[in-house]
Amino acid sequence: MQRSLKVNIAANVLGRGYTALCGIVFVPIYLHFLGVEYYGLFALINSYMIVAALLDAGFSASLTREIARLSESAPERMRDLVWTVSLPYCAAALALAVVFFLAAPWIASVILRESRQLHEPLLIASVGFGGLAMTLQLPVFLYAGGLAGLQRQDLANAVNIASTTLRYGGSLLLLWSSWRSVPNLMIWQATVAGLTAIAALIVLWRHLPSNHRRPRFRRALLLDIWRFAVGTGGAALLGMLAFQSDKVFIGALLPLKDVGIYMVASVIATNLMMLAQPVSAAAFPRLSQLYARTDLAAIRATFRKISQLVAAAVLPLATVVAFFPEQTLAIWTGNPLVSTDAAPILRLLSIAVACNTLACIPSNMILAAGKTRQIFTLTAIGCALVLPSFYVLTVWLGALGTASAMLGYLLLLFIGYAILLRRLLGSHEWPRWIAIDVFLPQILILVVVATAQTLAPPVAAKKELFLVLATTWAAASIVATLAMPALRCQALSYLRHLRAIVQAAS
Questions:
Q1: Is the pLDDT of residue 49 over 70?
Q2: Is the predicted pLDDT of residue 2 greater than 50, yes or no?
C-alpha cells in the first residue's frame, strides 16, 4: 500500500475509532440520566442523523471521486468545482432544515407510537431540533468528501475529533445540569454541526490548489458529476431507506421500552461496522485515482489488500459478539435485564454487520469504476424485498423480527455485490477473493470462537468476562491475519523489521 493510503487508513482508524468509543461510553451515561424510555427517544431521533447521508444525494461521493480524478489531470479546476457544488448544495441544506423543523409535529406523530404518553411539546421540540442537527451535517459530509478526494483524511478526521469532543463534552455538561432534556441535547448537536461545517470548509479551501483567481460557478462542472451523483444518490436513497427502516418500524409498531432495547443492540452493531469504515473511506478515492489511470494491476492489488484488511478488522470481533451477545452487553451496560432482552437481537445484528463488512469494499470498487446503474438496481431490488419484511416480521416477532429482516437484507446485498464484482475482478481473481478473503478467514474464526465458547468457564464478574472475550478476539484475529496472504506478508515484514531494530539496539 502506498504511504497516502496507509496514512489515510490510520487517520480514519483514529478519528472514527474515537467517535465509536465516545458513542459506546456514553450509552450507559444517557441511560443513567435519561432512563430507558427517554433514552429510547433520544437514540431513535439520533439514529436518524444517518439519514443525512441519504439527503446528501451522492454529491459527497461524487466530489470525492471528481477531485481524486482531477488530481491526475487538472488540479487547477478543483476550487471552481467545490464552489460550483457548494452553492446549490448548501442552499438546499438550509431549505431542508426549515422544512424538517416546521414539519416536526407531523414527523413525531409518524415515527413514534407512544407520542401521546410523553410530554407532547417536548417530543415535538426533540424531533424539530433533531431535524436541524441532521440537515446541518450535510455540508460537513460534502467538505469531508472533498478532503477525501485530496487524500487528506487526516485533516478531515482532525475536524471530526474536535467536533466529537465538543458534542459529547457539551452533552455531558447538559446531563449534569438542570437543563437536562432531549430537546436541549438536540439543540447542542445542531449547534456543533453548524460549527463543524464552517471548520471543514475552511480546512478544505486552504488545502485546495490555488489558481490565483476568485472561484467561478461553472455549470459544466456540475453537469460533469451530475450523472454519477444521481446514480450514487439514488442507490444511497434506497439503501438508507432500507437500512434505517428498522428504526421506523420499531418506533411506529413497538413500545418505547422495546425501542430502547433494540437501540442498545443497534449501537454495538453500528460501531462494529465503523471498524470497516476507516479502510473503506480511504479505499474509494484511491481506487478512483487508479481507475483514472486505468492501472488494472494496481487496482486488483489494492483491492486484495484492503478487502483482507477489512475482513481481519471486523470479522473476528463480530463473530465474538455473535457467540457471546449477553456477555458483551453485560460488560458494556452493567444492566442484567437489558443484557438478557437485547442479546438475541444483538446476535442477529452482529451477523448482519459481518455481511455488510464483506460488501463494503466491493461496493467501493464498483463505484470507483463508475458502475452506478448496477448498484442502483441491486439496491432497488433489496429495498423492495426488505420493507414488507420489516413490517411483517416486526408485527409477528417484535424487535427480533426486525433484526431478522435486517440480516436478510444485508446478506442479499453481499451476494449481489459479489456477483457484480465478478466482471471487474476477472475469472481468476474473483474465485480467489471468495475463497481466500471471505470463506477461509470466516471458517477459521468460527472454529476459534466456537472452541472458546465450549471451553470457557462460566463467569459473572466483568473483569473475567472481558478477559475471556478479549482473549478469544485476539486468537481469532491472529488466525484470520495469518490465513490471508497479503496481511500475512505484511505482518511478517513488520516482525522482521522489528527484530532488526531490536538486534541493532542490542
A1: no
A2: no
Structural domain spans, the chain: 3-498
Which ranges of 208-324 does DSSP label H, i.e. alpha helix? 219-253, 256-273, 277-293, 296-323
Q: Which amino acid is at 145?
A: G
Name, in order, each residue with C-beta under 8 angstroms of 227's C-beta and a sequence gap of 6 or more.
Answer: 372
pTM, to two decimals: 0.68
Cell of 228: 454519477
Give the tens place of pLDDT for each residue, 137-178.
Answer: 888 888 988 888 888 888 888 998 999 999 888 888 888 887
Q: Could you give the CA distance from residue 200 to residue 194 in angstroms, rounded to a whole number? A: 10
For residue 483, the SS3 value is helix
Degrees to nearest 5, angle at CA 461 with 455 and 465: 40
Closest listed residue to residue 276, CA positions, set 355, 342, 372:
355
Residue recorded with cell 481466500: 436
* Longest Cα separation, the chain: 72
Contact call for residues 320 and 480 (beta carbons, < 8 A): no
Please tell me the distance from the alpha carbon of residue 421 to that of residue 352, in angstroms, as a whole number: 20
Q: How high is the pLDDT of residue 277?
A: 75
Residues 89, 101: Cα–Cα separation, whole Å: 19
Please enumerate in sequence order all residues whose Cβ is within 8 A of that of 102, keeping only pairs 6 or more positions apart, or say none: none
The three-state (H, E, C) secondary structure of 91-106, written as one string: HHHHHHHHHHHHCHHH
